[in-house]
Design a protein that fits this description.
It is built from one helix and eleven strands. By secondary structure, the chain is mainly beta. The protein has one domain (19-139): Macroglobulin (MG2) domain (Immunoglobulin-like, Sandwich), CATH 2.60.40.
Length: 140
């Protein structure tokens, strides 16, 4: 009985391990901090800024984008991000031209180190536009 209890506790602690976060931004400043970050953007290019609990320990991470609305199990988009092994923050550029809610997962050797969700919309509600995409964001 105690072995079952130990196994249950071990699984509970490992499944709750803290992962880093992903921020969605219009770009980064000279110090690598996100600029104009938010959770809702219009279609187009954006920069993700991510962090991990510990140093990356590698110079290459995989960024996977999943369509939450479609319930995709396979990523819609896969990119690689170059990082410094002795740091725990990085960034990557993404191009998101489809509307919907997306989950971005940053992985190291197949293990998620950070994740976040974003919503992509075609245009800003209430604005009649000229047809040009507006990179306006909705702050967090």
């Amino acid at each position: 009985m105690s072995a079952v209890c130990f196994l249950f506790c071990a699984l509970a602690f490992t499944s709750c391990a803290k992962k880093g976060s992903v921020s969605f931004c219009e770009g980064i400043d000279s110090k690598g901090k996100g600029v104009n970050c938010g959770k809702v953007f219009t279609t187009g290019d954006l920069t993700i800024v991510f962090n991990a609990k510990d140093d990356f320990g590698t110079d290459d991470l995989t960024v996977k984008v999943f369509n939450v609305d479609a319930g995709d199990r396979n990523p819609k988009l896969v990119r690689h991000a170059k990082v410094k092994p002795d740091e725990n923050t990085g960034h990557a550029d993404l191009d998101l031209y489809d509307e919907g809610r997306f989950r971005v997962v940053v992985e190291k050797r197949g293990e998620a180190v950070s994740s976040g969700e974003i919503e992509i919309i075609d245009s800003i509600p209430g604005e009649a536009g000229s047809g040009e995409m507006d990179r306006t964001f909705y702050p967090e």
